[in-house]
Amino acid sequence: MSWLLWVLGIVGFFYLVGKLTSKPEKPVLSVTTRTRTVTYDTKRDQYLPWSDEPYHHTHLFKLFGTDAGLAWNDGDDMVDVYCISRFSKGEPQTKVHSRFYYGIQDRVWHNPPKGAAHECLKEINNVLKLKSKP
Questions:
Q1: Rounded distance, CA 42 to CA 37, Å?
Q2: 117: phi then psi, degrees, rounded to nearest 5
Q3: Is 115 helix (H, G, I), strand (E, B) or coil?
Q4: Where are the alpha helices (DSSP H) in the chain?
């Protein structure tokens, strides 16, 4: 019986050492993907979602040479990521590709170019850093 306790003790010791020295797992992806058409109001310089109520915050940037945008509301823990397609008349047509929860990184986007989610999240982090400066 005592040899069984020794074996269990040794196995338990190596299990704990393995757990303590292993790298933490990546966070579970929490992204809901949806698609909707929105318009861009050039007079107010912001996106208008389907409800025609403007977002509290919008931010335009270049994503691999293409116009893209981030939009979010105060108190919301998600960011809408837009890909902007311009037609010949110059009127922007946008689609929401994904909603990213703040701080969670992964590579999921609706039919993304490689690395798009990472670039969007870098941009989100830059915007949040700028917002937090006095």
A1: 16
A2: -60, -40
A3: coil
A4: 2-21, 116-132
pLDDT at 100: 43
**80: nearest Cα among 109, 41, 105, 52:** 109
Question: What average pLDDT does the segment 9-20 reach?
Answer: 76
Q: What percent of the chain has pLDDT over 70?
A: 14
Taking the CA atoms of residue 41, residue 43, residue 44 and residue 48 in that order, the dihedral angle to the nearest 10 degrees is: -10
pTM above 0.85, yes or no: no
What secondary structure does DSSP assign to 6-38, as a single string?
HHHHHHHHHHHHHHHHSPPPPPPP-EE----EE
Q: 3-class SS at 91?
A: coil
What's the full length of the chain, in residues? 134
- Residue reference for tokens 């994904």: 98
- Residue type for 114, please? K
pLDDT band (50, 70, 90) for residue 6: confident
Q: Per-residue b/e over 19-35, b at no fewer than 16 CB within 10 Å?
A: eeeeeeeeeeeebeeee
Which residue's entry shows tokens 């990546």? 26
